[in-house]
Specification:
By secondary structure, this protein is α+β, with helices and mostly antiparallel strands. The protein has helices at residues 22-32, 57-70, 89-98, and strands at residues 2-10, 17-20, 37-43, 48-53, 101-107, 110-111, 118-123, 130-138. Bound molecules: zinc ion (ZN). Residues 81, 86, 88, 92 line the site of zinc ion.
Protein backbone atom coordinates (compact mmCIF):
# COMPACT_ATOMS: atom_id res chain seq x y z
CA UNK A 1 0.00 0.00 0.00
CA UNK A 2 1.20 3.50 -0.87
CA UNK A 3 0.77 6.56 1.32
CA UNK A 4 1.18 10.19 0.29
CA UNK A 5 1.00 13.39 2.35
CA UNK A 6 0.72 16.96 1.10
CA UNK A 7 -0.28 20.33 2.58
CA UNK A 8 -2.26 22.96 0.65
CA UNK A 9 -1.55 26.53 1.75
CA UNK A 10 -4.07 29.36 1.96
CA UNK A 11 -3.87 33.04 2.82
CA UNK A 12 -7.21 34.66 2.08
CA UNK A 13 -7.26 38.49 1.97
CA UNK A 14 -10.68 38.52 3.72
CA UNK A 15 -11.93 37.26 7.08
CA UNK A 16 -14.33 34.80 5.44
CA UNK A 17 -14.39 33.08 2.07
CA UNK A 18 -14.91 29.83 0.20
CA UNK A 19 -12.44 28.28 -2.24
CA UNK A 20 -13.08 25.33 -4.55
CA UNK A 21 -10.03 23.12 -3.97
CA UNK A 22 -11.13 20.13 -6.08
CA UNK A 23 -8.45 20.59 -8.77
CA UNK A 24 -5.69 20.97 -6.15
CA UNK A 25 -6.81 17.73 -4.48
CA UNK A 26 -6.93 15.92 -7.84
CA UNK A 27 -3.42 17.19 -8.67
CA UNK A 28 -2.23 15.77 -5.34
CA UNK A 29 -3.78 12.40 -6.22
CA UNK A 30 -2.03 12.52 -9.61
CA UNK A 31 1.32 13.09 -7.88
CA UNK A 32 0.67 10.24 -5.42
CA UNK A 33 0.18 7.77 -8.33
CA UNK A 34 -2.52 6.04 -6.26
CA UNK A 35 -5.16 4.54 -8.62
CA UNK A 36 -7.44 2.85 -6.05
CA UNK A 37 -7.77 4.11 -2.49
CA UNK A 38 -9.00 6.86 -0.19
CA UNK A 39 -8.25 10.56 0.06
CA UNK A 40 -8.65 12.47 3.33
CA UNK A 41 -8.73 16.27 3.17
CA UNK A 42 -8.87 18.18 6.46
CA UNK A 43 -8.46 21.75 7.65
CA UNK A 44 -5.54 21.98 10.10
CA UNK A 45 -7.09 24.97 11.91
CA UNK A 46 -10.10 25.22 14.22
CA UNK A 47 -11.43 28.31 12.44
CA UNK A 48 -11.61 26.78 8.93
CA UNK A 49 -13.51 23.91 7.30
CA UNK A 50 -13.30 21.45 4.45
CA UNK A 51 -16.64 20.29 3.06
CA UNK A 52 -18.31 18.94 -0.07
CA UNK A 53 -21.06 20.76 -1.90
CA UNK A 54 -22.15 22.19 -5.25
CA UNK A 55 -20.13 24.89 -7.03
CA UNK A 56 -23.07 27.21 -7.63
CA UNK A 57 -22.64 30.97 -7.23
CA UNK A 58 -25.79 31.55 -5.19
CA UNK A 59 -24.70 29.00 -2.62
CA UNK A 60 -21.52 30.95 -1.80
CA UNK A 61 -23.76 33.84 -0.64
CA UNK A 62 -26.27 31.48 1.01
CA UNK A 63 -23.55 29.82 3.13
CA UNK A 64 -22.25 33.22 4.23
CA UNK A 65 -25.73 34.55 5.14
CA UNK A 66 -26.81 31.33 6.87
CA UNK A 67 -23.64 31.09 8.96
CA UNK A 68 -23.88 34.76 9.94
CA UNK A 69 -27.45 34.13 11.11
CA UNK A 70 -26.40 31.12 13.21
CA UNK A 71 -23.17 32.61 14.59
CA UNK A 72 -22.90 36.33 13.81
CA UNK A 73 -19.35 37.71 14.02
CA UNK A 74 -20.46 40.85 15.89
CA UNK A 75 -20.87 42.00 18.55
CA UNK A 76 -17.67 40.27 19.63
CA UNK A 77 -18.58 40.53 23.33
CA UNK A 78 -21.60 38.20 22.93
CA UNK A 79 -19.20 35.21 23.13
CA UNK A 80 -17.41 33.88 26.22
CA UNK A 81 -14.47 32.69 24.06
CA UNK A 82 -13.76 36.33 23.16
CA UNK A 83 -13.28 37.13 26.88
CA UNK A 84 -9.80 35.63 26.32
CA UNK A 85 -8.92 38.63 24.12
CA UNK A 86 -9.62 36.79 20.85
CA UNK A 87 -12.34 37.91 18.45
CA UNK A 88 -12.94 34.66 16.58
CA UNK A 89 -15.55 32.77 18.60
CA UNK A 90 -17.91 32.95 15.60
CA UNK A 91 -15.21 31.32 13.43
CA UNK A 92 -14.94 28.35 15.83
CA UNK A 93 -18.72 27.90 15.70
CA UNK A 94 -18.89 28.20 11.91
CA UNK A 95 -16.12 25.63 11.58
CA UNK A 96 -18.05 23.24 13.83
CA UNK A 97 -21.13 23.49 11.63
CA UNK A 98 -19.31 23.16 8.29
CA UNK A 99 -17.02 20.35 9.44
CA UNK A 100 -13.36 19.51 9.67
CA UNK A 101 -12.74 17.02 6.85
CA UNK A 102 -13.94 14.97 3.92
CA UNK A 103 -12.97 11.50 2.75
CA UNK A 104 -13.41 10.69 -0.95
CA UNK A 105 -12.87 7.38 -2.74
CA UNK A 106 -10.25 7.26 -5.49
CA UNK A 107 -11.22 5.09 -8.44
CA UNK A 108 -9.00 4.71 -11.51
CA UNK A 109 -6.91 7.64 -10.26
CA UNK A 110 -9.84 10.08 -10.02
CA UNK A 111 -11.99 11.49 -7.19
CA UNK A 112 -15.07 9.26 -7.26
CA UNK A 113 -17.79 11.91 -6.77
CA UNK A 114 -21.55 12.05 -7.01
CA UNK A 115 -22.86 14.23 -9.88
CA UNK A 116 -22.40 17.71 -8.39
CA UNK A 117 -19.88 17.13 -5.63
CA UNK A 118 -16.92 19.49 -5.29
CA UNK A 119 -14.51 20.01 -2.38
CA UNK A 120 -14.40 23.43 -0.71
CA UNK A 121 -12.16 25.18 1.79
CA UNK A 122 -14.20 27.41 4.11
CA UNK A 123 -12.28 30.22 5.79
CA UNK A 124 -13.85 31.90 8.84
CA UNK A 125 -10.88 33.79 10.31
CA UNK A 126 -8.65 34.65 7.38
CA UNK A 127 -5.98 37.22 6.54
CA UNK A 128 -3.32 34.78 7.79
CA UNK A 129 -1.61 31.61 6.63
CA UNK A 130 -3.64 28.42 6.92
CA UNK A 131 -3.01 24.80 5.95
CA UNK A 132 -5.09 21.91 4.66
CA UNK A 133 -3.78 18.35 4.92
CA UNK A 134 -4.27 15.88 2.08
CA UNK A 135 -3.49 12.26 3.00
CA UNK A 136 -3.85 9.55 0.40
CA UNK A 137 -3.68 5.80 0.95
CA UNK A 138 -4.11 3.03 -1.59
CA UNK A 139 -2.42 1.27 -4.46
ZN1 LIG B 1 -10.20 31.41 19.11
Amino acid sequence: MKTYRHELLFHLPTRRGFVNITSQVQETIDKSRVREGLCLVNAMHISASVFINDHEGGLFEDWEKWLEKLAPEKPHDQYRHNDTGEDNADAHLKRTIMGREVVVAITEGKLDFGPWEQIFYGEFDGMRRKRVLVKIIGE
